[in-house]
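Table S2 (continued). Query chain:
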Amino acid sequence: MAKLSKKQKEAFAKFDKAQVYSLEDAIKVVKQITYTKFDSSFDIDVRLGVDPRKANQMVRGSVTLPHGTGKTVRVLVLCTPDKEEEAKAAGADYYGLDEYITKIKGGWTDVDVIITMPSCMPKIGALGRILGPRGLMPNPKTGTVTMEVGKAVQEAKAGKIDFKVDKFGIIHTAVGKVSFDDVKLLENTREVLQTIIKLKPSAAKGTYVKSITVSSTMSPGVKVDTKAATL
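Corresponding output:
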């Protein structure tokens, strides 16, 4: 293991790594052990009892956080000209089609969310190698491939986040900023957990939520009591 810095050692000394905390207490602990000068994101890791290599055990979805993410979301809408005004009115930062496809092929990915229409997907499919690894590929399951581009832009701006289980069976996502008050972080986190529980695949056997850990950008992880947090 890499040598801990002085700040990391101080953070580790402030709590019991082996202890399992209630979600409310875990939020308080993360705030105490966060030492970054910037406003860290508040992150949640949920380990699931699924095999993500099997299509019928893939867990992915989206949720609108009651109190937003705390960050400015830059939205690109790849659409036909007749939809550009709708995208602009809803607050899209960028909108268009061919010129942005060319930019992305050239390596430009300076956005947080990409929304498109079903009719544009054949053109966008070729961008999968660039957008996929960055989590930017539009997907009907997360509402980013839709005819209602304006509504999708508003949702993205309001704090809608997409998540999916990784190859290790873990969902990792930010649910706010450490500067949020405890109640907002609690409500955002519960919203994500409840959504993950609703998405339990019927093919998943045994314990579904195996562990929950919360942390900030640079802090150690704090274990959360899974039973109490998922009620």
